[in-house]
């Protein structure tokens, strides 16, 4: 079991001045808490890269009315990102592409009811490809810049970045919910490449994925729990960590974490988690039956066959 400290950043095209401010903040944090770094109390720093610390756009925020399994909304209409989009379109030789799509529905739409996300929709067009590549590039540049500063500020201290588990609409052609959050094409492997270069750990934020009670909702949302985030980390040969997105007190949920943390049929033991964060400690977990299940889970994390 591990625990991390987190610094949260916003996603905007960054100026040199803003980058310097970020770096100064991280360096100050390292100096002020030096005692805890030296004695091992702080063993890793998780750098927040977006909402809930995850590398993604705030595309599906309940604060703005989102409800599962809505596709979410693209986040590129403030003056800074819109200017970046226009500049990218001009550089690409298609200034008419310097606009956001008007055919993406609303935050709670389903893919097939939109012109952009339905099968063979606008996302497959020249414009769609340009827009989605630009949208993802802004996100990955953000990760590269901030993690690069963290690598310098916390030199010698392991750092980590959290990736989300956006599983709804994965069994559609467009993967609409992932697109609005910023993930496009072979995105996870590209993120893993950056983390490898910066000697960082990939932390997957949805280890439990689903339970039988959620099966009907998964089918309705054409969801796929086999999100290739951890596979991208293992393929890149970088440390992989994970945590549950919601509280878990039952054996089925714990077994799903174990299944992801210690996959069966891996003779090399390469595909294992280096750290597992359990969220969250509270009165419900400490109830007798729940705590017995938690004790079993901890033993299995440190033991042999996870499902005995």
Structure class: alpha/beta
Please state roughly what percent of the residues sit in beta strands, choosing from under 5%, 5-15%, 15-25%, 25-35%, 35-45% or over 45%: 5-15%
Described by the principal axes of the CA atoms, the overall outline is: globular
What is the second-level CATH architecture?
Answer: Alpha-Beta Barrel
Q: Provide the gyration radius in Å.
A: 20 Å
What is the overall pLDDT average? Answer: 86
For the report, how would you describe the main beta sheet? 6 strands, parallel
Question: In total, how many domains does the architecture comprise?
Answer: 1
CATH superfamily membership = Glycosidases
Fraction in helix? 25-40%
Number of helices: 10
Pfam family, one: Glyco_hydro_14
Protein name: Beta-amylase
Keywords: Carbohydrate metabolism, Glycosidase, Hydrolase, Membrane, Polysaccharide degradation, Transmembrane, Transmembrane helix
Family: Belongs to the glycosyl hydrolase 14 family.
Quick overview of this protein structure:
The chain is of the alpha/beta class.
Explain how this protein is built.
With 308 residues, the chain is of the alpha/beta class. The chain has a single domain (16-246), classed as Glycosidases (TIM Barrel), CATH 3.20.20.80. Helix content is 39%, strand content 7%. It has a 6-stranded parallel β-sheet with strand order 1-2-3-4-5-6. The chain is globular, with a radius of gyration of 20 Å. The two termini are 20 Å apart. The model is unreliable at 1-10 (pLDDT under 50).
């Amino acid at each position: 079991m591990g625990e991390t400290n987190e610094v949260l950043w916003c996603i905007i095209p960054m100026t040199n001045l803003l980058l310097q401010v970020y770096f100064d903040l991280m360096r100050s944090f390292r100096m002020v808490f030096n005692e805890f770094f030296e004695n091992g109390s702080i063993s890793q720093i998780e750098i927040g890269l977006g909402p809930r610390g995850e590398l993604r756009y705030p595309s599906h925020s309940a604060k703005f009315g989102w409800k599962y399994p809505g596709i979410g909304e693209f986040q590129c209409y403030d003056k800074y990102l819109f200017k970046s989009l226009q500049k990218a379109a001009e550089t690409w030789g298609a200034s008419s592409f310097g606009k956001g799509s008007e055919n993406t529905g609303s935050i709670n739409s389903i893919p097939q009811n939109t012109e952009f996300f339905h099968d063979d929709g606008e996302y497959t067009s020249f414009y769609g490809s340009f827009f989605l590549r630009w949208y993802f590039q802004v996100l990955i540049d953000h990760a590269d810049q901030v993690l690069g500063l963290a690598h310098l500020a916390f030199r010698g201290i392991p750092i980590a970045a959290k990736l989300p588990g956006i599983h709804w609409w994965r069994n559609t052609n467009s993967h609409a919910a992932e697109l609005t959050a910023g993930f496009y094409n072979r995105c996870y492997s590209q993120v893993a490449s950056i983390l490898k270069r910066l000697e960082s750990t990939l932390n997957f934020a949805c280890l439990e994925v689903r339970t039988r009670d959620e099966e009907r909702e998964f089918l309705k949302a054409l969801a796929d729990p086999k999100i290739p985030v951890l596979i991208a980390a293992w393929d890149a040969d970088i440390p992989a960590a994970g945590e549950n997105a919601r509280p878990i007190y039952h054996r089925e949920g714990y077994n799903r974490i174990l299944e992801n943390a210690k996959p069966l049929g891996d003779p090399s033991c390469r595909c294992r988690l280096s750290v597992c964060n359990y969220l969250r400690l509270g009165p419900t977990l400490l109830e007798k039956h729940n705590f017995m299940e938690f004790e079993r889970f901890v033993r299995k994390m440190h033991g042999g066959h996870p499902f005995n």
